[in-house]
Design goal:
mainly beta, Immunoglobulin-like, seven-stranded antiparallel sheet
Length: 507
Protein backbone atom coordinates (compact mmCIF):
# COMPACT_ATOMS: atom_id res chain seq x y z
CA UNK A 1 0.00 0.00 0.00
CA UNK A 2 1.07 3.59 -0.47
CA UNK A 3 -0.12 7.00 0.65
CA UNK A 4 1.12 10.35 -0.66
CA UNK A 5 1.35 13.57 1.31
CA UNK A 6 1.93 16.68 -0.79
CA UNK A 7 4.03 19.63 0.35
CA UNK A 8 2.38 22.39 2.36
CA UNK A 9 5.02 25.06 1.53
CA UNK A 10 8.13 25.24 -0.65
CA UNK A 11 10.50 27.87 -2.07
CA UNK A 12 13.95 28.52 -3.56
CA UNK A 13 16.52 30.79 -1.89
CA UNK A 14 19.63 32.15 -3.67
CA UNK A 15 22.70 34.32 -3.28
CA UNK A 16 23.16 34.43 -7.08
CA UNK A 17 23.82 37.61 -9.00
CA UNK A 18 21.06 39.40 -10.80
CA UNK A 19 21.66 39.74 -14.59
CA UNK A 20 23.73 42.92 -14.05
CA UNK A 21 26.35 40.81 -12.22
CA UNK A 22 26.63 43.56 -9.60
CA UNK A 23 23.76 42.93 -7.19
CA UNK A 24 23.05 39.58 -5.53
CA UNK A 25 19.45 38.36 -5.27
CA UNK A 26 19.81 37.47 -1.60
CA UNK A 27 16.53 39.20 -0.73
CA UNK A 28 14.55 37.43 -3.45
CA UNK A 29 11.85 34.83 -2.94
CA UNK A 30 10.25 32.28 -5.29
CA UNK A 31 7.60 30.72 -3.10
CA UNK A 32 4.93 30.78 -5.82
CA UNK A 33 7.10 29.55 -8.69
CA UNK A 34 6.07 26.28 -10.28
CA UNK A 35 9.63 24.91 -10.10
CA UNK A 36 12.33 24.60 -7.42
CA UNK A 37 16.00 25.05 -8.22
CA UNK A 38 19.40 24.19 -6.80
CA UNK A 39 22.75 25.05 -8.38
CA UNK A 40 26.30 26.23 -7.79
CA UNK A 41 28.18 28.72 -9.98
CA UNK A 42 31.91 29.26 -9.46
CA UNK A 43 33.98 32.17 -10.70
CA UNK A 44 31.49 34.18 -12.74
CA UNK A 45 33.16 37.17 -11.05
CA UNK A 46 36.90 36.60 -11.29
CA UNK A 47 39.40 36.87 -8.47
CA UNK A 48 41.01 40.33 -8.30
CA UNK A 49 43.16 39.76 -5.22
CA UNK A 50 43.70 37.34 -2.38
CA UNK A 51 41.22 39.38 -0.39
CA UNK A 52 38.64 39.13 -3.17
CA UNK A 53 38.39 35.50 -4.25
CA UNK A 54 36.41 34.29 -7.27
CA UNK A 55 32.66 34.48 -6.79
CA UNK A 56 30.41 31.82 -5.39
CA UNK A 57 26.69 31.68 -6.33
CA UNK A 58 24.33 29.17 -4.77
CA UNK A 59 20.68 28.16 -4.88
CA UNK A 60 18.92 25.96 -2.32
CA UNK A 61 15.45 24.42 -1.98
CA UNK A 62 13.25 24.52 1.13
CA UNK A 63 10.21 22.24 1.38
CA UNK A 64 7.86 21.16 4.19
CA UNK A 65 5.19 18.46 4.54
CA UNK A 66 2.23 18.37 6.99
CA UNK A 67 3.03 15.66 9.53
CA UNK A 68 -0.25 16.37 11.34
CA UNK A 69 -2.00 14.45 8.57
CA UNK A 70 0.35 11.51 9.07
CA UNK A 71 -0.44 11.54 12.80
CA UNK A 72 -4.20 11.50 12.18
CA UNK A 73 -3.91 8.80 9.50
CA UNK A 74 -1.89 6.61 11.86
CA UNK A 75 -4.41 7.09 14.65
CA UNK A 76 -7.20 6.08 12.24
CA UNK A 77 -5.32 2.98 11.09
CA UNK A 78 -4.80 4.30 7.55
CA UNK A 79 -1.04 3.80 7.82
CA UNK A 80 0.72 1.32 10.11
CA UNK A 81 2.74 1.97 13.23
CA UNK A 82 6.36 3.04 13.28
CA UNK A 83 8.65 0.27 12.08
CA UNK A 84 6.12 -1.07 9.58
CA UNK A 85 6.17 1.78 7.06
CA UNK A 86 8.85 3.70 5.15
CA UNK A 87 8.64 7.35 4.07
CA UNK A 88 10.27 8.60 0.87
CA UNK A 89 10.86 12.17 -0.24
CA UNK A 90 10.00 12.25 -3.96
CA UNK A 91 10.75 15.19 -6.27
CA UNK A 92 10.38 15.09 -10.03
CA UNK A 93 12.80 16.54 -12.55
CA UNK A 94 11.56 19.64 -14.37
CA UNK A 95 12.96 19.88 -17.89
CA UNK A 96 14.24 23.28 -19.00
CA UNK A 97 16.31 24.88 -21.77
CA UNK A 98 19.38 25.72 -19.67
CA UNK A 99 22.41 23.56 -19.01
CA UNK A 100 22.21 20.72 -16.51
CA UNK A 101 24.90 19.40 -14.16
CA UNK A 102 26.46 15.93 -14.31
CA UNK A 103 27.98 13.66 -11.67
CA UNK A 104 26.95 15.47 -8.49
CA UNK A 105 25.37 14.80 -5.12
CA UNK A 106 22.34 16.38 -3.44
CA UNK A 107 21.85 16.35 0.31
CA UNK A 108 18.60 16.45 2.28
CA UNK A 109 18.86 18.04 5.72
CA UNK A 110 16.16 18.98 8.23
CA UNK A 111 15.65 22.72 8.64
CA UNK A 112 16.07 23.88 12.24
CA UNK A 113 13.75 26.89 12.37
CA UNK A 114 10.42 28.01 10.94
CA UNK A 115 10.31 29.84 7.61
CA UNK A 116 7.76 31.36 5.24
CA UNK A 117 6.91 30.26 1.72
CA UNK A 118 6.51 33.77 0.30
CA UNK A 119 4.86 35.30 -2.74
CA UNK A 120 7.69 35.56 -5.29
CA UNK A 121 7.92 34.00 -8.76
CA UNK A 122 11.12 35.26 -10.34
CA UNK A 123 13.83 32.59 -10.75
CA UNK A 124 15.57 34.45 -13.58
CA UNK A 125 16.30 37.97 -12.40
CA UNK A 126 15.77 37.42 -8.64
CA UNK A 127 13.82 40.67 -8.42
CA UNK A 128 10.86 39.52 -6.28
CA UNK A 129 12.27 40.91 -3.04
CA UNK A 130 10.53 40.27 0.25
CA UNK A 131 11.23 43.78 1.72
CA UNK A 132 9.17 43.15 4.82
CA UNK A 133 6.61 40.94 3.07
CA UNK A 134 6.27 37.27 4.03
CA UNK A 135 8.79 34.91 2.53
CA UNK A 136 12.13 33.20 3.14
CA UNK A 137 15.24 34.31 1.27
CA UNK A 138 18.99 33.72 1.51
CA UNK A 139 19.36 36.04 4.48
CA UNK A 140 16.03 35.70 6.32
CA UNK A 141 13.73 32.82 7.26
CA UNK A 142 10.72 35.15 7.44
CA UNK A 143 9.77 38.83 7.49
CA UNK A 144 10.58 38.90 11.20
CA UNK A 145 13.45 36.44 11.64
CA UNK A 146 16.91 36.14 10.06
CA UNK A 147 18.73 32.85 9.54
CA UNK A 148 21.48 32.24 12.08
CA UNK A 149 23.67 31.30 9.11
CA UNK A 150 23.03 32.69 5.62
CA UNK A 151 21.62 30.07 3.27
CA UNK A 152 19.41 28.53 5.95
CA UNK A 153 19.76 26.76 9.28
CA UNK A 154 19.92 22.96 9.22
CA UNK A 155 20.36 20.11 11.70
CA UNK A 156 23.70 18.43 11.13
CA UNK A 157 24.30 16.82 14.53
CA UNK A 158 22.88 13.39 13.70
CA UNK A 159 23.99 11.19 10.81
CA UNK A 160 20.68 9.27 10.97
CA UNK A 161 18.77 12.30 9.65
CA UNK A 162 21.27 13.36 7.00
CA UNK A 163 20.46 12.01 3.55
CA UNK A 164 21.98 12.19 0.09
CA UNK A 165 21.50 10.99 -3.48
CA UNK A 166 24.06 10.84 -6.26
CA UNK A 167 23.04 11.88 -9.78
CA UNK A 168 24.81 10.93 -13.00
CA UNK A 169 22.86 13.50 -14.99
CA UNK A 170 20.73 16.55 -14.39
CA UNK A 171 17.59 14.76 -15.57
CA UNK A 172 16.94 12.36 -12.70
CA UNK A 173 14.23 12.40 -10.05
CA UNK A 174 14.99 12.59 -6.34
CA UNK A 175 13.86 9.67 -4.18
CA UNK A 176 15.31 9.43 -0.66
CA UNK A 177 14.20 7.29 2.27
CA UNK A 178 13.77 9.77 5.16
CA UNK A 179 11.84 7.43 7.47
CA UNK A 180 13.92 8.17 10.58
CA UNK A 181 13.35 11.92 10.23
CA UNK A 182 9.60 11.60 9.60
CA UNK A 183 9.17 9.35 12.63
CA UNK A 184 11.01 11.95 14.73
CA UNK A 185 8.62 14.61 13.44
CA UNK A 186 5.61 12.44 14.23
CA UNK A 187 6.92 11.59 17.71
CA UNK A 188 7.70 15.25 18.41
CA UNK A 189 11.36 14.58 19.24
CA UNK A 190 12.40 16.80 16.30
CA UNK A 191 10.40 19.85 15.29
CA UNK A 192 9.06 19.74 11.75
CA UNK A 193 10.38 22.74 9.85
CA UNK A 194 10.77 20.77 6.64
CA UNK A 195 14.00 19.99 4.80
CA UNK A 196 16.56 21.72 2.66
CA UNK A 197 17.62 20.12 -0.63
CA UNK A 198 20.87 21.32 -2.19
CA UNK A 199 24.28 20.31 -3.48
CA UNK A 200 26.58 18.72 -0.92
CA UNK A 201 29.44 20.93 0.32
CA UNK A 202 32.01 19.35 -2.02
CA UNK A 203 29.87 20.37 -5.00
CA UNK A 204 28.89 23.82 -3.80
CA UNK A 205 31.43 26.39 -4.95
CA UNK A 206 34.72 27.02 -3.19
CA UNK A 207 35.11 30.24 -1.22
CA UNK A 208 37.73 31.33 1.27
CA UNK A 209 36.35 33.76 3.81
CA UNK A 210 38.55 35.86 5.96
CA UNK A 211 39.61 34.01 9.09
CA UNK A 212 37.62 31.01 7.95
CA UNK A 213 34.28 32.80 8.24
CA UNK A 214 31.40 33.50 5.89
CA UNK A 215 31.78 36.73 3.96
CA UNK A 216 28.45 38.51 4.06
CA UNK A 217 26.10 36.41 1.97
CA UNK A 218 28.86 34.10 0.73
CA UNK A 219 29.54 30.80 2.52
CA UNK A 220 33.09 29.91 3.51
CA UNK A 221 33.71 26.54 1.84
CA UNK A 222 37.33 25.44 1.60
CA UNK A 223 36.21 21.92 0.59
CA UNK A 224 34.09 23.20 -2.27
CA UNK A 225 34.34 22.77 -6.04
CA UNK A 226 36.10 25.08 -8.49
CA UNK A 227 33.65 24.26 -11.23
CA UNK A 228 29.96 25.00 -11.71
CA UNK A 229 26.94 22.71 -11.35
CA UNK A 230 24.14 24.54 -13.11
CA UNK A 231 21.17 23.98 -12.87
CA UNK A 232 18.98 21.29 -11.35
CA UNK A 233 15.23 21.97 -11.30
CA UNK A 234 12.33 20.07 -9.76
CA UNK A 235 8.61 20.69 -10.04
CA UNK A 236 7.19 22.64 -7.10
CA UNK A 237 3.93 22.05 -5.28
CA UNK A 238 2.26 24.70 -7.45
CA UNK A 239 2.86 22.86 -10.70
CA UNK A 240 -0.13 22.05 -12.88
CA UNK A 241 1.13 18.48 -13.31
CA UNK A 242 -0.65 16.34 -10.72
CA UNK A 243 1.87 13.47 -10.73
CA UNK A 244 4.93 15.74 -10.65
CA UNK A 245 4.21 17.49 -7.36
CA UNK A 246 6.73 16.89 -4.56
CA UNK A 247 5.45 14.23 -2.21
CA UNK A 248 6.23 12.43 0.99
CA UNK A 249 5.29 8.88 0.05
CA UNK A 250 4.45 6.32 2.72
CA UNK A 251 5.02 2.73 1.55
CA UNK A 252 4.36 -0.52 3.31
CA UNK A 253 3.66 -4.16 2.54
CA UNK A 254 0.03 -4.76 3.50
CA UNK A 255 -0.32 -7.99 1.52
CA UNK A 256 -1.85 -10.86 3.48
CA UNK A 257 -0.70 -14.25 2.29
CA UNK A 258 -3.28 -16.69 3.62
CA UNK A 259 -2.11 -20.11 2.50
CA UNK A 260 -5.16 -22.04 3.65
CA UNK A 261 -5.91 -22.90 0.03
CA UNK A 262 -2.26 -23.82 -0.70
CA UNK A 263 -1.34 -25.61 2.51
CA UNK A 264 1.53 -28.12 2.01
CA UNK A 265 2.68 -30.97 4.19
CA UNK A 266 6.28 -30.56 5.31
CA UNK A 267 8.82 -32.31 3.10
CA UNK A 268 12.56 -32.86 3.01
CA UNK A 269 12.38 -31.65 -0.59
CA UNK A 270 11.54 -28.12 0.53
CA UNK A 271 13.56 -25.56 2.49
CA UNK A 272 12.44 -24.82 6.03
CA UNK A 273 10.61 -21.61 5.11
CA UNK A 274 8.48 -23.40 2.51
CA UNK A 275 7.49 -26.07 5.02
CA UNK A 276 5.60 -23.47 7.04
CA UNK A 277 2.14 -22.31 6.01
CA UNK A 278 0.60 -18.98 6.98
CA UNK A 279 -3.00 -19.06 8.24
CA UNK A 280 -5.31 -16.17 9.15
CA UNK A 281 -8.31 -15.81 11.42
CA UNK A 282 -10.74 -13.03 10.45
CA UNK A 283 -13.17 -12.25 13.28
CA UNK A 284 -16.18 -10.68 11.58
CA UNK A 285 -19.00 -9.61 13.91
CA UNK A 286 -22.08 -8.25 12.12
CA UNK A 287 -20.03 -7.64 9.02
CA UNK A 288 -17.23 -5.77 10.81
CA UNK A 289 -13.77 -6.96 11.78
CA UNK A 290 -13.67 -6.92 15.58
CA UNK A 291 -11.02 -7.90 18.10
CA UNK A 292 -11.85 -10.99 20.14
CA UNK A 293 -12.80 -9.43 23.51
CA UNK A 294 -10.81 -11.79 25.74
CA UNK A 295 -7.78 -11.63 23.42
CA UNK A 296 -7.70 -8.04 22.15
CA UNK A 297 -4.30 -7.38 20.62
CA UNK A 298 -2.80 -10.36 22.42
CA UNK A 299 -1.95 -13.86 21.21
CA UNK A 300 -3.84 -17.05 20.45
CA UNK A 301 -2.88 -20.70 20.16
CA UNK A 302 -3.52 -22.81 17.05
CA UNK A 303 -3.68 -26.60 16.91
CA UNK A 304 -4.29 -29.07 14.09
CA UNK A 305 -6.61 -32.09 14.21
CA UNK A 306 -7.53 -34.87 11.85
CA UNK A 307 -11.20 -35.46 11.01
CA UNK A 308 -13.95 -37.58 12.46
CA UNK A 309 -15.03 -40.82 10.81
CA UNK A 310 -17.29 -38.90 8.43
CA UNK A 311 -14.61 -36.21 8.11
CA UNK A 312 -17.01 -33.45 9.13
CA UNK A 313 -15.31 -32.10 12.28
CA UNK A 314 -12.06 -32.27 14.24
CA UNK A 315 -11.47 -35.52 16.07
CA UNK A 316 -8.95 -37.11 18.37
CA UNK A 317 -5.94 -35.49 19.94
CA UNK A 318 -3.93 -32.55 18.77
CA UNK A 319 -1.50 -33.51 16.01
CA UNK A 320 2.23 -33.16 16.41
CA UNK A 321 3.45 -30.12 14.46
CA UNK A 322 6.68 -29.29 12.64
CA UNK A 323 8.50 -28.31 15.82
CA UNK A 324 7.33 -31.32 17.87
CA UNK A 325 4.75 -29.31 19.81
CA UNK A 326 0.98 -29.46 19.37
CA UNK A 327 0.36 -25.70 19.46
CA UNK A 328 1.75 -22.66 17.64
CA UNK A 329 1.28 -19.06 18.68
CA UNK A 330 -0.85 -16.73 16.57
CA UNK A 331 -0.18 -12.99 16.71
CA UNK A 332 -2.37 -9.96 16.31
CA UNK A 333 -2.19 -8.39 12.83
CA UNK A 334 -4.80 -5.63 12.85
CA UNK A 335 -8.34 -5.12 14.07
CA UNK A 336 -10.04 -8.52 14.14
CA UNK A 337 -7.22 -10.30 12.28
CA UNK A 338 -4.77 -12.85 13.74
CA UNK A 339 -2.14 -14.95 11.99
CA UNK A 340 0.17 -17.90 12.57
CA UNK A 341 2.81 -19.96 10.75
CA UNK A 342 2.34 -23.72 11.04
CA UNK A 343 3.60 -26.96 9.53
CA UNK A 344 2.95 -30.69 9.87
CA UNK A 345 4.99 -33.68 8.68
CA UNK A 346 2.22 -36.23 8.03
CA UNK A 347 1.10 -36.68 4.45
CA UNK A 348 -1.68 -39.24 4.83
CA UNK A 349 -4.48 -37.00 6.12
CA UNK A 350 -6.99 -35.77 3.56
CA UNK A 351 -8.49 -33.02 5.71
CA UNK A 352 -6.96 -31.01 8.54
CA UNK A 353 -8.86 -28.88 11.02
CA UNK A 354 -7.24 -25.79 12.52
CA UNK A 355 -8.60 -24.83 15.94
CA UNK A 356 -7.86 -21.34 17.33
CA UNK A 357 -8.04 -21.26 21.12
CA UNK A 358 -6.83 -19.85 24.38
CA UNK A 359 -6.51 -22.63 26.91
CA UNK A 360 -9.78 -24.56 26.92
CA UNK A 361 -11.71 -21.71 25.24
CA UNK A 362 -12.04 -22.34 21.50
CA UNK A 363 -12.80 -19.41 19.18
CA UNK A 364 -12.77 -20.78 15.64
CA UNK A 365 -12.39 -23.96 13.64
CA UNK A 366 -11.47 -24.12 9.98
CA UNK A 367 -10.78 -26.87 7.47
CA UNK A 368 -7.78 -27.42 5.20
CA UNK A 369 -7.21 -29.72 2.22
CA UNK A 370 -3.44 -30.21 2.41
CA UNK A 371 -1.19 -30.72 -0.62
CA UNK A 372 2.01 -32.71 -1.13
CA UNK A 373 5.20 -31.37 -2.72
CA UNK A 374 6.27 -33.28 -5.80
CA UNK A 375 9.20 -33.13 -8.17
CA UNK A 376 7.37 -33.53 -11.45
CA UNK A 377 9.32 -31.40 -13.93
CA UNK A 378 7.64 -28.90 -16.21
CA UNK A 379 9.12 -26.69 -18.90
CA UNK A 380 5.86 -25.11 -19.94
CA UNK A 381 5.64 -21.37 -19.28
CA UNK A 382 2.42 -20.60 -17.43
CA UNK A 383 -0.04 -18.38 -19.27
CA UNK A 384 -2.91 -16.99 -17.25
CA UNK A 385 -6.39 -15.70 -17.83
CA UNK A 386 -7.08 -12.78 -15.45
CA UNK A 387 -10.20 -10.85 -14.58
CA UNK A 388 -11.01 -8.23 -11.94
CA UNK A 389 -14.39 -9.60 -11.04
CA UNK A 390 -15.74 -6.49 -9.28
CA UNK A 391 -14.13 -3.69 -11.33
CA UNK A 392 -16.44 -0.67 -11.65
CA UNK A 393 -16.47 1.70 -14.59
CA UNK A 394 -15.99 4.77 -12.39
CA UNK A 395 -14.68 5.48 -8.90
CA UNK A 396 -14.74 8.58 -6.71
CA UNK A 397 -11.37 10.13 -5.91
CA UNK A 398 -12.10 9.91 -2.17
CA UNK A 399 -12.73 6.15 -2.00
CA UNK A 400 -10.55 3.14 -1.41
CA UNK A 401 -11.73 0.13 -3.41
CA UNK A 402 -10.94 -3.55 -3.01
CA UNK A 403 -10.13 -5.31 -6.29
CA UNK A 404 -10.82 -9.05 -6.45
CA UNK A 405 -8.93 -11.07 -9.06
CA UNK A 406 -9.91 -14.31 -10.71
CA UNK A 407 -6.88 -16.12 -12.13
CA UNK A 408 -6.65 -19.46 -13.92
CA UNK A 409 -4.36 -21.10 -16.39
CA UNK A 410 -5.43 -19.87 -19.80
CA UNK A 411 -5.50 -23.26 -21.44
CA UNK A 412 -7.48 -25.07 -18.75
CA UNK A 413 -9.09 -27.90 -20.65
CA UNK A 414 -12.02 -29.47 -18.79
CA UNK A 415 -13.62 -32.76 -19.63
CA UNK A 416 -17.34 -32.93 -20.35
CA UNK A 417 -17.87 -34.06 -16.77
CA UNK A 418 -15.83 -31.30 -15.09
CA UNK A 419 -17.34 -28.63 -17.33
CA UNK A 420 -20.82 -29.78 -16.41
CA UNK A 421 -20.15 -29.99 -12.70
CA UNK A 422 -17.71 -27.26 -11.77
CA UNK A 423 -15.89 -24.13 -12.83
CA UNK A 424 -12.13 -23.99 -12.47
CA UNK A 425 -11.09 -22.72 -9.07
CA UNK A 426 -9.10 -19.51 -8.99
CA UNK A 427 -5.33 -19.82 -8.83
CA UNK A 428 -3.65 -17.80 -6.09
CA UNK A 429 -0.48 -16.14 -7.32
CA UNK A 430 2.01 -16.12 -4.45
CA UNK A 431 3.92 -13.02 -5.64
CA UNK A 432 1.91 -10.55 -7.71
CA UNK A 433 2.11 -6.79 -8.14
CA UNK A 434 0.10 -4.07 -9.90
CA UNK A 435 0.83 -0.76 -11.60
CA UNK A 436 -1.43 2.01 -12.90
CA UNK A 437 -1.13 3.81 -16.25
CA UNK A 438 -3.04 6.86 -17.42
CA UNK A 439 -4.81 5.78 -20.60
CA UNK A 440 -4.60 9.16 -22.34
CA UNK A 441 -0.81 9.28 -22.66
CA UNK A 442 0.51 6.05 -21.08
CA UNK A 443 1.94 8.03 -18.15
CA UNK A 444 2.87 5.66 -15.35
CA UNK A 445 0.89 6.98 -12.39
CA UNK A 446 1.83 4.16 -9.99
CA UNK A 447 4.87 2.02 -10.89
CA UNK A 448 5.36 -1.55 -9.74
CA UNK A 449 6.55 -1.62 -6.15
CA UNK A 450 8.34 -4.95 -6.06
CA UNK A 451 11.32 -3.90 -3.93
CA UNK A 452 11.81 -4.32 -0.20
CA UNK A 453 8.64 -2.33 0.60
CA UNK A 454 6.55 -4.41 -1.85
CA UNK A 455 3.93 -1.67 -1.59
CA UNK A 456 1.96 -2.73 -4.66
CA UNK A 457 1.81 -6.41 -3.73
CA UNK A 458 -1.41 -8.43 -3.92
CA UNK A 459 -2.87 -10.38 -1.03
CA UNK A 460 -4.41 -13.82 -1.43
CA UNK A 461 -6.62 -16.29 0.44
CA UNK A 462 -8.79 -19.26 -0.52
CA UNK A 463 -10.87 -16.95 -2.75
CA UNK A 464 -7.87 -15.76 -4.77
CA UNK A 465 -5.81 -12.59 -5.06
CA UNK A 466 -7.00 -9.13 -4.05
CA UNK A 467 -5.71 -5.66 -3.19
CA UNK A 468 -6.99 -2.35 -1.86
CA UNK A 469 -6.41 0.79 -3.93
CA UNK A 470 -6.63 4.42 -2.77
CA UNK A 471 -8.19 6.40 -5.63
CA UNK A 472 -6.88 9.70 -4.21
CA UNK A 473 -3.50 8.71 -5.66
CA UNK A 474 -4.90 9.45 -9.13
CA UNK A 475 -5.86 12.74 -10.76
CA UNK A 476 -9.65 12.91 -11.25
CA UNK A 477 -11.15 13.27 -14.71
CA UNK A 478 -9.09 10.60 -16.48
CA UNK A 479 -9.27 6.94 -17.48
CA UNK A 480 -6.63 4.62 -16.04
CA UNK A 481 -5.40 1.08 -16.62
CA UNK A 482 -4.45 -1.63 -14.13
CA UNK A 483 -1.63 -3.93 -15.24
CA UNK A 484 -0.28 -6.94 -13.33
CA UNK A 485 3.04 -8.70 -13.04
CA UNK A 486 3.55 -12.19 -11.62
CA UNK A 487 6.82 -13.50 -10.22
CA UNK A 488 8.15 -16.57 -12.04
CA UNK A 489 10.25 -18.45 -9.47
CA UNK A 490 11.73 -20.77 -12.08
CA UNK A 491 13.08 -17.87 -14.14
CA UNK A 492 13.72 -15.70 -11.07
CA UNK A 493 12.04 -12.75 -12.74
CA UNK A 494 8.80 -10.77 -12.93
CA UNK A 495 6.60 -11.23 -15.97
CA UNK A 496 3.97 -8.67 -16.90
CA UNK A 497 0.64 -10.16 -17.90
CA UNK A 498 -1.02 -9.20 -21.17
CA UNK A 499 -4.45 -8.21 -19.89
CA UNK A 500 -5.29 -4.65 -18.92
CA UNK A 501 -8.29 -3.31 -17.02
CA UNK A 502 -9.69 0.18 -17.56
CA UNK A 503 -11.52 2.41 -15.12
CA UNK A 504 -12.16 6.11 -14.59
CA UNK A 505 -11.69 8.36 -11.56
CA UNK A 506 -13.95 11.38 -10.97
CA UNK A 507 -14.37 13.77 -8.08
Amino acid sequence: MLKRYTASIDTTIVNAYQPNLRIRGTGSNAGQADVLETFSIYGRQSQSSSASPASQELSRILIKFPTSKIVSDRAAGVIPASGSVNFYLKMHNAEHSKTVPRDYKLVVLPVSQSWQEGEGLDLEGYKDLTKGRPGANWISASNSSAWTKVGGDYLTNSSSIMYEQTFESGLGDLEVDITELVERWVAGSTSNYGVGVFLSSSYEAYFSGSAGADSGSVLNNLAGAKESYYTKRFFARGTQYFFKRPALEARWDDARRDERGEFYFSSSLAPAADNLNTLYLYNFIRGRLTNIPSVGTGKLLVSLYSGSSDNSKPSGSKLSLHDGNNNVTASYVSTGIYSCSIGINSSSITTLYDVWHSGSLEFSTGSIAPLVFNTRPTTKEPIYYINITNLANTYRSDETARMNLYVRHKYWNPTIYTKATTDPATTSIQSASYRVIRALDNLEAIPYGTGSDFHTGLSFDVSGNYFDFDMSLLEPGYEYIFKFSFYDSRMNTWKEQRQEFRFRVDK
